[in-house]
Design brief:
- The chain has a two-stranded antiparallel ribbon.
- Helix 4 runs antiparallel to helix 5.
- A hairpin with a 5-residue loop joins strand 1 and strand 2.
- It contains five helices and two strands.
- With 118 residues, it is mainly alpha-helical.
């Protein structure tokens, strides 16, 4: 699959795909005789994972570390699991904090409703 199709199907721009490849976030694509990138369809699953890690706040440096381990194969499973467990704990802490904020907002809304009633 050419880079344009990967961009279209993944929702990333061509420039972002090239940038991610340079940063080690994406495996290097096979290059044909003309030098054009040619990706395996499985890259779309990896890009989806990468986008979700990024959206959940995982730093690009950690995503790149995970990507290197992933490319090294099954022998790195425990290290990859450790990275994901750490990130999962950070996400859980953020969710807890946001839940707390939501409760405060709810209380303030109730206070304002009472105030409006007079």
């Amino acid at each position: 699959m050419k880079i344009g199709e990967v961009a279209q199907r993944s929702g990333l721009s061509i420039d972002t795909i090239r940038y991610y490849e340079k940063r080690g976030l994406l495996p290097e694509a096979f290059r044909g005789p003309a030098g054009q990138r040619n990706y395996d369809a499985s890259i779309l699953h990896w890009i989806d994972f990468l986008k979700r890690m990024k959206a959940s706040g995982m730093p690009l440096k950690e995503i790149a570390a995970y990507a290197v381990l992933w490319q090294q194969g099954a022998g790195t499973a425990s290290e990859r699991r450790r990275l994901l467990e750490q990130h999962g704990k950070r996400i859980a802490a953020c969710i807890d904090e946001l839940q707390s904020c939501l409760l405060v907002i709810g209380d303030k809304i109730l206070d304002l409703i009472e105030l409006e009633k007079g």
